[in-house]
Write a structure and sequence with these properties.
Structural class: alpha/beta
Radius of gyration: 23 Å
Strand order of the largest sheet: 1-2-3-4-8-5
Largest sheet: 6 strands, mixed
Helix content: 40-55%
Shape: globular
Order of helices and strands: HHEEEHEEEEEHHHHH
Number of helices: 8
Oligomer: single chain
Number of strands: 8
Distance between the termini: 33 Å
């Protein structure tokens, strides 16, 4: 997939979203509108934060991660494409945040509240809602909440039912317009004017453009490497299976189109 031109970026693109929303004055009003609560102070904020326990573990790269004055953790992600099993992804993100939040030997009661929020261009659940909020309760007794301090929201920029705060709905409309490359009138919202100004200022910064291109090239290399590793693993599996059927290395080399020495090397892999 070719790298998207810097001038065509909108808030739905990871780089632009991270650059704009990592500023407290941009992310805090959005969270306050969505969660209908007041955040007095943003204590820490990271863009593209990496959470990884071990070298070979599946890593998490969070778009925008922040903590407030109560040590509550917030992860806000933007999704231009609809991913499968988003619920499992949210679960994994929550577990990563939890593992990096609790000090060694600390009591579980000290575990911070966390919010994982996905901003999606498409409707993941297909019910037309603007805001999908996960609720937990005891089966057979919905009046008993199951409160573990974790919260999940999936927002839908393609909503048809306005079940959210008006400010959140306008923000989702702005996201949708940016994704479609359409103009959006921000004159009725000082917040969206602020966001739109931040987007345009970043586009005019040649230093940010260089940073974007460098990051995009790095991510392309990572995806290519991951693909090649997956392809190589598949080749090893095929060679092992063919050997188990008493095929010679020479026959395997001829059949799968790999050099004989390469087939020998892969056959020795664990």
């Amino acid at each position: 997939m070719p790298i998207k031109p810097f001038k065509d970026l909108s808030l739905v693109d990871d780089f632009m979203f991270s650059e704009v929303m990592r500023k407290p004055e941009n992310i805090k009003p959005f969270l306050e509108s969505l969660l209908e609560t007041k955040i007095q102070r943003v204590v820490a904020i990271d863009k593209q934060k990496d959470l990884k326990d071990t070298y070979d573990a599946h890593g998490i790269r969070l778009d925008v991660y922040l903590e407030d004055e109560h040590n509550t953790k917030y992860d806000v992600e933007v999704q231009a494409r609809l991913h499968r099993k988003l619920e499992k992804r949210i679960r994994y993100y929550e577990s990563g945040i939890d593992r990096h939040s609790l000090e060694i030997n600390a009591d579980y009661e000290e575990l911070s509240d966390s919010f994982v929020i996905f901003l999606c261009v498409e409707d993941y659940f297909g019910a037309g809602l603007a805001v999908y909020e996960r609720e937990s309760h005891i089966k057979g007794a919905p009046e008993i909440p199951y409160e573990d301090g974790s919260h999940a929201y999936i927002l839908n920029a393609s909503f048809t039912k306005e079940n959210g705060n008006p400010a959140v709905l306008d923000f989702l409309r702005y996201i949708r317009a940016g994704y479609k490359g359409e103009e959006f009138d921000t004159s009725s919202s000082s917040y969206l004017q602020q966001i739109d100004k931040a987007v345009n200022e970043i586009k005019q910064d040649s230093g940010r453009e260089m940073e974007y291109m460098t990051l995009a090239m790095k991510m392309m290399d990572e995806r290519k490497e991951a693909f090649e590793q997956g392809e190589r693993a598949s080749q090893i599996k095929t060679i092992k299976r063919m050997l188990s059927r008493d095929m010679s290395l020479e026959e395997i080399s001829d059949m799968i189109g790999l050099d004989l020495e390469e087939v020998k090397r892969l056959a020795e892999k664990k």
